[in-house]
Amino acid sequence: MKKALLALCLTVATATAAAAAYKIDSNHANARFAIDHFGTSTNTAGFYNLSGDMQFDRKAKTGSIDIKIPANTISSNNTQFDNHLKSADLFNVAQYPEIRFQSTRFNFKGDKVSSVTGNLTLLGKTAPVTLKATKFNCYQSPMLKTEVCGGDFEAVIDRTKWGMDYLVSAGVSKNVQLHIQIEAAKQ
Length: 187
Hints:
globular
């Protein structure tokens, strides 16, 4: 029994030690969203200067990521709309300056990352979200002189799960398309 427990501990320690640490490159990371506007057009905006950490082990098919999204970086390229997005009607940036995604599991299909399951914290509430990987890859960066891993991820969320109910009863969709792009440099 003791030998089996020791072997299990060594396996876990080896697997944990094999995962490499990465830091999100804020120059190659953003979170954008699109939402139907009364069935006539689609409103879009994005967040920039994302930060955070990632652990990734391709061989063991494991990983984790913690993405910090500064809410005040929201931009639609329209100052009036940006100010409304930052208001208490929507993202309430004054009270909730950070949006955060913390993974609970990297999912693989074969050798490729297919999705990342985790928890999204927005407006002080946390709910589960699965981000589908539309692409994920690692490469040796000629500029950073280290391995960089990342990809494009997407999901459709129901914003009312986080209490963002503004104009849902008037006809603005509660469903929001999320698109998150991340690149992280090996440390």
